[in-house]
Amino acid sequence: MKDKTYILLTVGIGLLLITSSAYTQEMQWLQYHSEREADRIIGNMPSKDLRLTSERPPNVELPDFQCEEPLFASWSTPMVKSGQLLVALDRTTESERRDQLYIDSNINGHLNDEKPVKAHRTDRYYAYFGPVKVVFEGEDGPLAYHLNFRFYENNNRLRLDAYSGCWYEGDITVGGIKKHCMLIDYNGNGTFNDKSMSYNQCDRIRVGKKGDVDTRFVGNYIEIDDELYHTEIARDGAFIILSKADDVKFGDVQVPETITEFTAGGENGQFTFKPEKGAGSLPVGRYRINSWTIARKDDKGRRWEVEGRAYTPEGDFEVTEEKKISLDVGEPLKANIQASLNSQTQNYEFSKSLRGRMGEYINLTRGGQTVGDLWKMRAKNKEGTFEKTYPMPDQ
After folding, report:
1. What letter would DSSP give residue 25?
2. Exposed e or buried b per residue across 274-293, where buried means at least 16 C-beta atoms within 10 angstroms of its C-beta
């Protein structure tokens, strides 16, 4: 009986060690980085417009401000219980505009114990702050996060923008091959695993060679080297877990045969496919059209591409196993020109636009270069004594 108990315990402990070891190997850890101008490294990112007010927040202990009317705002983040952190702008005596920033970096609801952050750069209308450090309380201890701020002040127009000043990156192994991974808090709310149908509300991931700029939406899946993987990303961005997605169900998608490339995104992630006679497939789920491309060659062999970009709910669709979804995108394109009279100069001003069926923004390239010389306007008077054609280059 003793021997039997001893053997069972040994097997149990052995299984525990094997399971624990395998789980640890799946968690691939990344390194934290912060930068004053993070967008130079991780690409352009949207900023959050924080609503400014001169009204002092109640029940908050404040520092001795140097200006008579400091400004206050709140940065929203799910990383704190209250859902937001207080921010304040002050002006030193030697500055024409507000050049000091306070933020509740220790998450205690007050600013009187915070050191002011001096603007690292100011110009005629702007003051720039960052990277400004805040410390969240994570499951395993304190977590650092950095923000950048841009303050605009011109007469009575005031604006404070906040955007992420940090990211995670490092080498990971995918299918036995070494890759470089980068996680980006694209929506600037303090977390790195946000999934969304909205282009601006989901975070970003890169997996490939170091320096690659192929950036995709964070989602349930990611396609790497033609293999589909489940993704699990730490809320704070510290690690990523990838596992083969062999159990995923797909549905058929049909687009016009003129479409040569199609991209859609949602909580499943972002996917691009090159349709064959208009046919493609996506994992079952809800998506929003991101872009489509039509490529052709003219009689001189030059490659022309028209790309339509749409991120609005009008492009939402659902993929199911049972029924093929048909998407009416692409041509014809809609060209529009508008004229308005400038009351000060008494001259007419013209604006032009090219849109897709759903209002997509259109980019036209020839030989890889944006085409801006196709638009021409012909003007003539009613009497027929004047007629002239004017070029309308892109502004």
Report:
1. H
2. ebeebebebbebebbbbbbb
Distance of alpha carbon 130 from alpha carbon 150, whole angstroms: 9
What H or E segment, with its residue span, contains residue 12?
Answer: helix 2-26
pLDDT tens-digit series, residues 37-94: 888 888 888 899 999 999 999 999 999 999 999 999 999 999 999 999 999 999 997 7
d(CA 230, CA 392): 49
Q: How far apart are CA 362 and CA 103, in angstroms?
A: 41
DSSP single-letter state for residue 254 = E
Rounded to 5°, the CA angle 36-135-119 comes to: 35
Task: Return the structure tokens found at 370.
Answer: 């944006």
* Cα–Cα nearest to 142, from 218, 79, 198, 93: 79
Dig out the tokens for 353 from the structure.
Answer: 């636009």
Task: Detail the DSSP E strand segments found in 216-266.
Answer: 216-217, 221-224, 227-233, 239-244, 250-254, 261-266
What φ, ψ does residue 278 adopt, rounded to 5°? Answer: 85, -5
Pairwise CA distance, residues 163 & 39, whole Å: 9
Provide the whole-model pTM. Answer: 0.84
Kindly state the helix (H) or strand (E) to which residue 307 belongs, with its residue range.
strand 303-309
User: Are the beta carbons of 166 and 38 closer than 8 angstroms?
Assistant: yes
Q: Say how far apart CA 159 and CA 392 lie, in whole Å.
A: 34
User: Looking at residue 77, what DSSP letter applies?
Assistant: -
Q: Sign (positive/negative) of CA torsion 229, 235, 237, 241?
A: negative
Confirm if 158 and 52 have CB atoms less than 8 A apart: yes
Structure tokens at 33: 């980085």
The candidate with the shortest Cα–Cα distance to 307, out of 272, 277, 279, is 272
